[in-house]
Amino acid sequence: MLNNAADNTTTRDGYAKQYVQFEDERTRPVRDLLAAVPIAPEQTIGTAVDIGCGPGNSTGMLMARAPSAQVSGVDASADMLDAARERLPQLEFELADIAEWSVRRSDAPRYDLILANAVLQWLPDHDTLFPRLVQRLAPGGHLAVQMPDNLDEPAHRLLREIAAEAPWAERLAGVARTERFDARHYYALLAPLCARVDVWRTTYHHPLAGGPDAVVEWFKGSAMRPFLAALGSDEERAAFTARYREAIARAYPAFDNGVVLLPFPRLFIVATRG
Fold first, then answer.
1. Would residue 249 be called left, alpha or beta, if left means φ above 0 and alpha means ψ between -120 and 50 degrees?
2. Mind listing the pLDDT tens digit for each residue in 21-40?
3. CATH dotted code for 4-273
């Protein structure tokens, strides 16, 4: 699911296994996203691709939304693709970097539906990437994007603050998330290229059993990965995780039953090429 540069430790740390711990919660946004794709009754979705398909949970949702389509998946993680192939052995999955996939030759296949669920936030230069993805659409095709929009949430802010502390500051100085933009920016970027652009933001509130440990486990499958990958030893990673857990316990107090309510804002975009 990550781009190649951030994915060097995927096989070692079992990212696919970590990611699917919260599969129901992670799948709900893609279900909501695909429900908003305006497929007209007379429109045939012949080809559809899930870029950043991960372990295939989003690909399964794509198949349900476009049951007559030839569906495929693309991911930069071999570990994720192994999980996707095990889940959906009848489909074709390709190991590829999404940025490189988006600029393939002009005679490459055009798609009626491109799904990018919780992946493009890992990639830089959205002002170039998004128009390239639109160019991979057939006329009337749809680009459906969902990205976490939570960099200002405590879970992310605390990661950055702890990474700036001793003894990790020097090692983690170069770890930063790619720049993201608001709904207005993406609308202005896509509207000149598309016949229709729909942009919205939703905050999910996920009840996680297990107190602060559950929150840490959630982000070990996503936001923590670049930080942990940049640390040089298991001891460093364990110390960093313990420090993060302390901060999370204060920021996300559990209810008496041990449940933590995790607010999670997400940005959705559905763009239809004219």
1. alpha
2. 777 888 999 999 999 999 99
3. 3.40.50.150
